[in-house]
Amino acid sequence: MQPAKNIFSYRQYWAKRFGTAPYLPLSRQQMDELGWDSCDIILVTGDAYVDHPSFGMAVIGRVLEAQGFRVGIISQPDWNSKDAFAELGKPNLFFGVTAGNMDSMVNRYTSDRRIRSNDAYTPKGEGGLRPDRATIIYTQRCREAFKGVPVVIGGIEASLRRIAHFDYWSEKVRRSILFDAKADLLVYGNAERQIVEIAHRLAANEPVSNLTDIRGTAFIVNNQHLPDGWSEMSADEIDTGDQPIPNANPYATEPPCDTTHTVASSEKKVITLHRRPKLDRSRTVVRLPSYEKVKRDKELYAHASRILHLETNPGNARALRQHHGDKDIWLNPPPIPLATAELDAIYDLPFSRLPHPDYRDDNIPAYEMIRFSVAIMRGCFGGCTFCSITEHEGRIIQSRSEESIIREIEVMRDSVPGFTGMVSDLGGPTANMYRLACKSEKIESACRRLSCVHPAICENLNTDHAPLIKLYKRARALPGIKKILIASGLRYDLAVRSPEYVKELATYHVGGYLKIAPEHTESEPLSKMMKPGIGSYYRFKEMFDKYSKAAGKEQYLIPYFIAAHPGTTTEDMLNLAIWLKQNSYRADQVQAFLPSPMALATAMWHSERNPLKKITRSSEKVFVPRGIKIRRLHKAFLRYHDANNWPLLREALKQMGRADLIGNGKKHLVPNWQPVGTGDQPQGKHGSHNKGETFTTQQTHGRPNSTQKRKGNFSGKTKSRVVRRVRRTKK
Questions:
Q1: What pTM did the predictor assign?
Q2: How many CB atoms lie within 10 A of CB 159?
Q3: Given pLDDT bands bounded at 50, 70 and 90, which one contains residue 274?
Q4: Inter-axis angle of helices 600-607 and 298-310, to 10 degrees?
Q5: Torsion sign, CA atoms 450, 453, 458, 464
Q6: CATH 1.10.1760 given to domain 372-563
Q7: CA–CA separation, 463 and 259 (whole Å)
Q8: What pLDDT does residue 95 have?
Q9: Which of 28, 99, 202, 294 is exposed most, by the fewest CB atoms within 10 A?
Q10: How far apart are CA 6 and CA 222, in angstroms?
């Protein structure tokens, strides 16, 4: 992998003379106070503006400011007219548009397509302040406000829609977001490297149409356009492999490029294999099946998804292109990951770490969650098929230096109002991947695995947790720091490789409960998720309990699970429910699988094929629990203790031939009685309904009391709400 130019090595733009703004301006008045007559770049976002490095628009804004540009922000504008988009005037260089830290559709709708009543990225948590498909709407309004100004779209919404993608909310394959938004450029992934180059080249009067050679970008080209010196290959060639006699093309596209067929005689066909000369990967573009074909052919959609994911390693990825009518979408290879020095410089920028003063004392829930947290790395090589992190941030871990992290903790300690000495998290996409990487840069650059840890941890992966342990120890020893918690997701199959890490974690960094995500107990769903087997969970739990006890602490694991994931049968959910009861876990709220654009699990959901393997017309089929009825049932198994779910579960258990699990004993899953006001009965005073989509659990411990024995409920010192409700009813 060739090193990239340091993003802080560019010559600063002339506007650097205006200095650093305490906050990037949200209004014309604030621009005047800074002495600006105009903005060089205007960022439009669906989030409230919080000047904190966990908020994407703040990071991009501060990085561009450090390059010398004057950056303004239009935050959560009224999208019903162009007026709000003209608030700061015409930008000299370009508009940068993002839906925000979350995809606008995920932000606004639950996995059952119900509108959410709140928005964590909005003051007071108020919902409805961003439109559906915000990137498209915002871009159109920018075009209306100032014709001819380049528009660059980015953020996770644009990143995950960079090619033809399945859209769960409309139940169809949509074309690349570039065509609907009509933007000039799309930047995908963490965008600092791309956006800095774009800004400097536009500032040098280079037309936006010339910016076609920047990694991590996508743009629209003419159908027949192929740059000088470039070669094109079909996606069919990548997954075919060299064979003495090629198989018939299962995708019914153009014939494979590396074979020719000649007839030797009237009775015998001779197949002559002409191998194409080895192509320069850096000058080769892979032709994906067209939008029109993947829209009507689910197997081709799965094939295209697989090829996209195989071409995501910055060390060997090739450019991709895909027909959309008479135009093509062209995707350059992913950006080169940021070096530690670059990442440190970003986090050393003058963030106030506070919401903009215009919000006064309004609570912004997402900010409250990360207010006292510190990000120590980016990226994730886990490759979980349902997760968007890998598609967005990539598989290569980008770690900050220990010094940079310590500096941020000290700044937070000394300057953020309300800090009490409690650091809520030192983490990132995965808490314990800090400084983990391939042992060989050469191997890493050539690798095309979808995950470094599935189906087993790669022997070339360095799993040494020593740098992370050292960081934890140094951070908790800082004056004024009372406790450092770890709240980011933990990869426990990696953690068990380092007993010293588990000891440090259990002894000093858990506040009674530690959340981890096995996601399931059964092998078939786990294989489709690319998650480790439940045996890894048991090994981690054994170590965690051991070190918690040694530290004299009573601490518990809270496992998270997911319902209705592709590959999950009703029998799988029943087995999970039995496991939950045997281990005395209760899910208070549950999460059902939500097919996010471009995820591999979404390709399974849509195509009912397994893109973790080569796709053919006869390749492995995947069971998909589609439809509201089966999704409700799968969620009900996770909340089998909720009396409102008992009628549904009783019916399902009878149909499955498992009526033996209905009864009032400890071995039964659901009782054969029903409290008044629950389930199919009229809602009573103490009835309840399942609300929410976030998964949490409650664990009970101890011996069962007499009431629980009679009613067949969980054992535990904490009596269930159902039991208390029954007692009141009987009285």
A1: 0.88
A2: 26
A3: low
A4: 170
A5: positive
A6: no
A7: 43
A8: 98
A9: 28
A10: 32
Cβ neighbourhood burial of 34 (10 Å; 0-12, 13-18, 19+) = middle
Task: Give residue 388's pLDDT.
Answer: 86
Q: What is the architecture, at CATH level 2, of domain 14-223+326-331?
A: 3-Layer(aba) Sandwich (3.40)
Look-up: residue for tokens 């939950």?
580
Backbone angles phi, psi at 622, to 5 degrees: -120, 130
The tally of CA atoms less than 13 A away on the side-chain side of residue 215 is 24
Q: Which phi and psi (to 5°) does residue 638 adopt? A: -70, -25
CA 438 to chain centre: 22
Check pLDDT > 80 for residue 190: yes
Cβ within 8 Å of residue 514, ≥6 positions away: 486, 490, 505, 506, 544, 555, 556, 557, 558
Give which of 550, 495, 499 is closest to 517, Cα–Cα: 495
Can you tell me the distance from the alpha carbon of 113 to that of 171, in angstroms, rounded to the nearest whole number?
11
Q: What tokens were used for 681?
A: 């009965």
Q: SS3 of 63, please?
A: helix
- For 164, phi then psi, to 5°, come to -55, 130
609 near 620, Cβ under 8 Å?
yes
Domain boundaries, the chain: 14-223+326-331, 372-563, 576-594+606-731
Instruction: Pull the structure tokens for residue 289.
Output: 């099946």
* Alpha-carbon gap, residue 564 to 110, rounded angstroms: 14
Specify the residue for token string 């990694």. Answer: 215
Instruction: Give the integer Cα–Cα distance in Å for 666 and 706.
Output: 12
DSSP 482-551: -EE---S---HHHHTT-HHHHHHHHHHS-SSEEEEEEE-SSHHHHHHHT---HHHHHHHHHHHHHHHHHT
Residue 692 pLDDT: 34
Q: 708: number of CA atoms within 13 Å, CB side?
A: 18
Q: How many helices (H) and strands (E) does the chain have?
A: 26, 27
Position 275 scores a pLDDT of 58
Cα separation, 124 vs 608, in Å, equals 41
Q: Count the neighbouring beta carbons within 10 Å of the beta carbon of residue 144.
A: 13
Which pLDDT score is estimated for 132?
A: 97
Strand partners, 269: 263
Helix (H, G, I), strand (E, B) or coil at 644: helix
> Residues 309-323: pLDDT tens digits?
999 999 999 999 999
Three-state DSSP at 243 gives coil
Q: How far apart are CA 555 and CA 537, in angstroms?
A: 16
pLDDT tens digits for range 108-158: 999 999 999 999 999 999 999 999 999 999 999 999 999 999 999 999 999
**How many CB atoms within 10 Å of residue 415?**
11
CB neighbour burial string for 88-109, b if at least 16 within 10 angstroms, e if fewer: bbebbbbbbbbbbbbbbbbbbb
Question: Do 82 and 52 meet the contact criterion of CB atoms below 8 Å apart?
Answer: no
pLDDT for res 22: 97
Residue 364: phi and psi, rounded to 5, are -115, 105
CB 251 within 8 A of CB 236: yes
Task: Indicate the average pLDDT of the chain.
Answer: 88
- 259's tokens: 């074979």
Of the candidates 71, 286, 77, 94, the residue with the CA atom closest to the CA atom of residue 185: 94
Q: Check: CB of residue 701 under 8 Å from CB of residue 692.
A: no
C-alpha distances (whole Å) from 336 to each of 213, 395, 676 are 13, 12, 61
Neighbours of 703 (CB within 10 A): 9
Dihedral over alpha carbons 434, 440, 444, 447 (to 10 degrees): -130
